Amino acid sequence: MNQKGGVGKTTTTVNLAAALALEGRRVLVIDLDPQSHASLHLGVEPQGLQTSIYDLLLDPDGDATAAIHSINENLAVIPSETDLAAAESELATVEDRHRRLGRVLDRVGHAFDLVLIDCPPSLGILTLNALAASDEVLIPMQAHFLALQGVGKLMETVSLVAGGLNPRLRVAGVVLCMHDAAATLSQEVVADIEAYFEQAKEQAVPWSGARVFRPPVRRNIKLAECPSFGKSIFDYAPTASGAADYRALAKAMLAGPVPTAADVVVVERAVTEVR
Ligand code: ADP
Ligand code: MG
Question: Hey, whose CA ends up nearest to atom 16 of ligand 1?
Answer without folding.
Answer: 224
